């Protein structure tokens, strides 16, 4: 089911004028704070009435200001996952989940509660109250409550922003499973390039209330010209297959026929991963280097050189593994005499790729 959103609204000096189409899967609204991400989600939820716009999911129209259509929030059949979880503190986990079931239309196809509980790994929490849950456990219960309301669309407004890194690492795999195993569209708000790289089927990049790019994560995150969060967040998103695990604690991946070594990954051989490699972690060489401690040396051809406003330059390298970005100084680019079409090598330390930048399943 295709989600179509077109919204115009003004808040004082801020003006939102954004339109995009989100195919099935998990669509991330990505941009800096204040770029309009939450405003769009609230318009989809019916919590904000925009001055003009149209929002539809397939044949189902939520808003059309030209036709005078504006469904109230309780009729939009949405599951909204907030940053804080917002569970009822006086109810057990089982009762919080049941509360979501109460809002499911009688004639709607219902999610099997046992499947949802298994999907989120919360079976052992059913008799606890929210006060006895960790931040990550609360987030999983909030996801379950949203799913069991039988929504036509799930909204997630920076659901990991209030969690520490350990809890984020706990929750990210559940959103990956949600993306891959639940058939309804998911609209997810984030300003984290790592989250986008791991989760997004589609990225809608926003800046100052406007859509500046839309497409797969690899395309949007790999284009520093449109990256709304700045060049420091630039990086490649590669898809690779787990080849084997080595006894020295490394996992060998097959990335387009090239070997890529990372610290041991919890995935079976043959499984597919999505990996984000930050541009500032990549070194470039014009000739194949020798005698280095870095294990990953990817040959390629320089596709683009884009100087920044400061001393930095982003260099895009076309490799068999995919498009790799390197953030180097202008001085280094000049010393290496880099030019488009020239061969070069991307050098990546195995330990430079953070665990949070490795997704357990590739999106559709």
UniProtKB/TrEMBL annotation:
Domain of life: Bacteria
GO molecular function per UniProt: ABC-type transporter activity; ATP binding; ATP hydrolysis activity; molybdate ion transmembrane transporter activity
Keyword Cell inner membrane carried by entry: yes
Domain ABC transporter: 2-233
Domain Mop: 291-357
Regions crossing the membrane: none
Keyword field contains Transit peptide: no
Example of a GO cellular component annotation carried by this entry: membrane
InterPro entries: AAA+_ATPase, ABC_transporter-like_ATP-bd, ABC_transporter-like_CS, Mo/tungstate-bd_C_term_dom, ModC_ABC_ATP-bd, Molybdenum_import_ModC, Mop_domain, P-loop_NTPase
Keyword set, alphabetical order: ATP-binding, Cell inner membrane, Cell membrane, Membrane, Molybdenum, Nucleotide-binding, Translocase, Transport
This protein's name: Molybdenum ABC transporter ATP-binding protein
């Amino acid at each position: 089911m295709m989600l179509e959103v077109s919204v115009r609204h003004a808040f004082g000096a801020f003006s939102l004028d954004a339109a995009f189409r989100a195919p099935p899967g998990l669509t991330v609204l990505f941009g800096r704070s204040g770029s309009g991400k939450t405003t769009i989600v609230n318009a989809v939820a019916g919590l904000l009435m925009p001055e003009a716009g149209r929002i539809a999911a397939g044949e189902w129209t939520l808003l059309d200001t030209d036709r005078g259509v504006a469904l109230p929030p309780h009729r939009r059949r949405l599951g909204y996952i907030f940053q804080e979880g917002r569970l009822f503190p006086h109810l057990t986990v089982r009762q919080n989940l049941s509360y979501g079931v109460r809002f499911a239309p009688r004639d709607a196809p219902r999610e099997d509660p046992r499947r949802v509980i298994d999907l989120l790994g919360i079976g052992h929490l059913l008799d606890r109250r929210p006060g006895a849950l960790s931040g990550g456990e609360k987030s999983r219960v909030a996801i379950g409550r949203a799913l069991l309301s039988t929504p036509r669309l799930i909204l997630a407004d920076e659901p990991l922003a209030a969690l520490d890194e350990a809890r984020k690492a706990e929750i990210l795999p559940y959103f990956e499973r949600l993306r891959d195993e639940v058939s309804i569209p998911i609209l997810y708000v984030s300003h984290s390039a790592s989250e986008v790289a791991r989760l997004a089927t589609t990225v809608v990049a926003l800046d100052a209330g406007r859509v500046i790019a839309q497409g797969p994560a690899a395309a949007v995150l790999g284009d520093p010209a449109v990256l709304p969060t700045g060049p420091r967040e630039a990086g490649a998103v590669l898809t690779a297959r787990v080849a084997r695990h080595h006894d020295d604690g490394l996992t060998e991946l097959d990335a387009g026929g090239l070997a890529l070594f990372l610290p041991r990954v919890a995935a079976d051989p043959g499984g597919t991963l999505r990996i984000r490699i930050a541009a500032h972690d990549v070194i470039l060489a014009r000739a194949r280097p020798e005698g280095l401690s870095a294990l990953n040396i990817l040959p390629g051809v320089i596709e683009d050189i884009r100087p920044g406003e400061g001393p930095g330059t982003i260099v895009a390298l076309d490799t068999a593994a995919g498009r790799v970005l390197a953030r180097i100084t202008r001085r280094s680019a000049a010393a290496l005499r880099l030019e488009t079409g020239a061969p070069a090598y991307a050098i990546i330390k195995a330990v430079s790729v953070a665990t949070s930048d490795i997704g357990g399943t590739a999106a559709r």
